Amino acid sequence: MNTTAEKAFVQQLQENQNLIHKICRLYTNDEDAHKDLFQEITIQLWKAYPQFRGEAKFTTWAYRVALNTAITLYRKKGRTLSTIEFDSKLHKVNQEEYNYEEEEHIKMLYQAVQQLNDIEKALVFMYLEDKDYTEIAETLGISEVNARVKMNRIKGKLKKILNP
After folding, report:
1. Which of 40, 89, 138, 141 has minimal Cβ neighbours within 10 Å of its Cβ?
2. What's an example of a GO molecular-function annotation for this chain (predicted)?
């Protein structure tokens, strides 16, 4: 990959790392697992970046790669993905520390979301990120109608979990 592409990747990663942290928060229960998943998602984004053609927004593409990485790793815990070296110091990526205290007020929601299946978690995450159903459907590879129906069902599930 050329230097211009590397710089573009690093800039996009820097600007969008909070979405990766949020995905990590959905799929992990402790700080070490969060850091490991963040690193693995970053590596998978780096490996996939040469195929990014810009047909979709970078965030849409990054959601898809990050969610697929999280789902793959946590659905098949015994299996690991092959990785390549990505030295964040070499590319000067300043990783922001994820502050769990700032997220304390939504801890109950995260606990409820943890009880959902992988696809439901991804849908809720994107919904909470104010993504429209078109983008959610495109990212998850389902129809827009299916995304709406699933979200309505998930809302009902979450209400039951939060208000038993």
Report:
1. 89
2. DNA binding
